[in-house]
């Protein structure tokens, strides 16, 4: 009986003791603050988006009140906001299940500004349980700015390792532009050459046929391509993707000839939208004056549609969505972004001599086509905090778009933990000559981050001339 009683007592302790422990510690305050402390509205722009961020998503729609202080401008005369402001303040609603919100400032037409005008926004209250964070105030100048630096949480969106967004970051203006990766299929080069790129952020692939008439292409033409136009797990070849180093003379779709008959039909596998495979297309591109004409249809369709694409030199590429059948906005203007974060097609090493194209998560490219350069700096040489203007002369900048790539992070592997590599940082020289040092803070749970929402910090080292 004593042994039975002893066993009963032991089991009782095992079950009772945990219930006597203190409750798990409460979550930290869910703070709301501005994404950046300053931003600018250049003279050629009419609208600015001011973003609010929270530590985590709210469970119900939550209102935040923002007060407006004007310098040199008046509401309704020089600018308006969306949502509308009343008596010097506006209310921003954070949607349920979201950790971000924003409002827009729109400059009125046909007004003269000398560039000294600005607005200061201050969070004056937030509905419970949200509390006000540290960056409680932000300044919007009605002119371009050169930021001295800030911290940003990249808005990659849901999906974790397959985050749904590509995110373009412009250091000098403290702005990020998040665009759904699957929102476009083809990019038409706006420079002097006639080149078309496929969507490397969705794992798109393409293959030329010998035919030049879309109406002659049927499903039978794709039978042999079912196992060819695929990427991942060792599959795929470099001829079905654009050059992974960004060389525009090596696009998978060859240069568009001025002779129409030399432009073949291509079979396009547009990749995935999230986890869903996008439908395949047959496409053909010819020149039209200084621009392009796109012919496209689903594989089994007997007729095709056309879409004219005009080159807009303010951008590196002008983009088209085949699903929507129209031009779409993707990249910011070419001089207004420095790095792009997100999933991108690069290469993986299979053995000592073999490489294959591979879709990489959390991959970072620089805007090399607009003149952006970057360098990787090891902290054993100089620390991030110590790096200053005197170090620029000994920094070797490169125009390779993959300078940063995936080198900033470590993936989970036997004997290692996933997380930001703390033995390095990056120095980025933008198209205007401004030099910034860039540090990745975290990106995954094991280093204190959240997959799809990496945190970065950057600081101005030297202002351009």
UniProtKB/TrEMBL annotation:
Residues 1-21 form the signal peptide. Pfam families: HmuY. Keywords: Signal. CDD domains: HmuY (cd12105). Gene3D superfamilies: 2.60.40.2030. It comes from the Bacteria. InterPro entries: CalX-like_sf, HmuY. This is HmuY protein. It comes from Siphonobacter aquaeclarae.
């Amino acid at each position: 009986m004593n042994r039975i009683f002893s066993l009963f007592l032991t089991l009782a302790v095992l079950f009772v003791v945990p219930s006597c422990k203190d409750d798990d510690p409460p979550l930290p305050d869910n703070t709301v603050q501005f994404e950046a402390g300053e931003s600018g509205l250049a003279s050629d722009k009419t609208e600015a988006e001011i973003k609010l961020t929270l530590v985590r998503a709210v469970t119900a729609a939550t209102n935040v009140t923002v007060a407006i202080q004007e310098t040199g401008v008046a509401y309704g005369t020089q600018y308006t906001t969306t949502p509308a402001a009343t008596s010097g303040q506006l209310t921003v609603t954070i949607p349920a299940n979201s950790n971000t919100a924003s409002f827009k400032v729109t400059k009125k037409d046909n007004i003269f500004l000398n560039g000294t005008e600005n607005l200061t926004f201050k969070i004056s209250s937030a509905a419970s349980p949200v509390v006000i964070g540290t960056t409680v105030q932000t300044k919007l100048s009605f002119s371009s700015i050169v930021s001295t630096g800030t911290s940003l949480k990249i808005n990659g969106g849901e999906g974790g390792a397959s985050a749904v967004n590509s995110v373009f970051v412009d250091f000098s203006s403290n702005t990020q532009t998040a665009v759904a990766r699957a929102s476009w299929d083809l990019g038409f080069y706006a420079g002097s050459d006639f080149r078309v790129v496929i969507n490397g952020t969705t794992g798109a692939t393409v293959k030329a046929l010998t035919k030049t008439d879309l109406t002659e292409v049927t499903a039978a033409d794709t039978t042999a391509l079912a196992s060819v136009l695929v990427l991942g797990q060792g599959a795929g070849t470099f001829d079905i993707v654009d050059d992974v180093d960004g060389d525009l003379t090596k696009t998978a779709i060859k240069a568009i000839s001025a002779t129409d008959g030399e432009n073949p039909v291509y079979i396009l596998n547009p990749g995935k939208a999230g986890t869903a495979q996008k439908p395949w297309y047959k496409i053909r591109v010819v020149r039209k004056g200084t621009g392009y004409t796109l012919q496209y249809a689903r594989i089994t369709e007997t007729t095709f549609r056309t879409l004219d694409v005009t080159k807009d030199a303010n951008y590196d590429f002008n983009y088209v969505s085949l699903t929507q059948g129209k031009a779409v906005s993707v990249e910011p203007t070419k001089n207004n972004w420095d790095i792009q974060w997100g999933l991108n097609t690069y290469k993986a090493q299979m053995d000592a001599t073999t490489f294959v194209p591979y879709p990489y998560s959390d991959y970072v490219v620089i805007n090399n086509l607009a003149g952006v350069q970057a360098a990787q700096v090891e902290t054993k040489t100089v620390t991030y905090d110590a790096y200053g203007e005197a170090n620029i002369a000994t920094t070797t900048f490169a125009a390779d778009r993959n300078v940063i790539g995936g080198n900033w992070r470590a993936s989970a592997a036997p004997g290692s933990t996933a997380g930001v590599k703390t033995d390095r940082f990056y120095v980025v020289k933008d198209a205007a000559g401004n030099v910034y040092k860039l540090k990745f803070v975290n990106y995954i749970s094991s280093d204190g981050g959240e997959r799809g929402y990496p945190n970065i910090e950057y600081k101005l080292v030297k202002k351009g001339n």
